[in-house]
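Usage

Read records sequentially. Each one opens with the input sequence:
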Amino acid sequence: SREIRFLQNALGAVLGPQDSFLVLRGLKTLGVRMEREQATAARVAEWLSRRPEVTQVYYPGLAGHPGREAHARQASGPGAVLSFRLASEDLALRLYQRRRIPALAVSLGGVESILSVPTRMSHAALPAARKRELGIDDTLARLSVGLEAADDLITDLEQALTGTD
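and closes with the structure output:
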């Protein structure tokens, strides 16, 4: 709380009482939530990396990730956010339309899993040429993993990708 107080004084950003209460309450469970979310994200990333509908998974917890060593030096875990590239725009659209568990939104760090479409959401304002330079297209998806059971999330993603219930 001393660090937060210092930042509020130095930056002038002062939260209201309810917001402050929510921050303090959330900090008490942050460690256990991150452990669960990272474990689930690792399972989902491994599962996605074996799927024929997925051409690439970007997650520093995977053995083949190019930034894995640098990430391991700088962080205590692989995180709960991963991106992946689907084999076609049609598969991506099917995933977005058929998914049940992850909310379709732009956010991260909540207790619920959130699936986003970077080209149409977080990066929508970028010119098309810049998106191409960055590798952001309609086959790219981002998943911020929440507290749902890994098996439930994987089952939901599977039914969404395959079009079967």
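Summary fields computed downstream for this record:
- The chain has one domain: 32-162.
- Residues 32-162 form a domain with the Aspartate Aminotransferase, domain 1 fold (CATH 3.90.1150.10).
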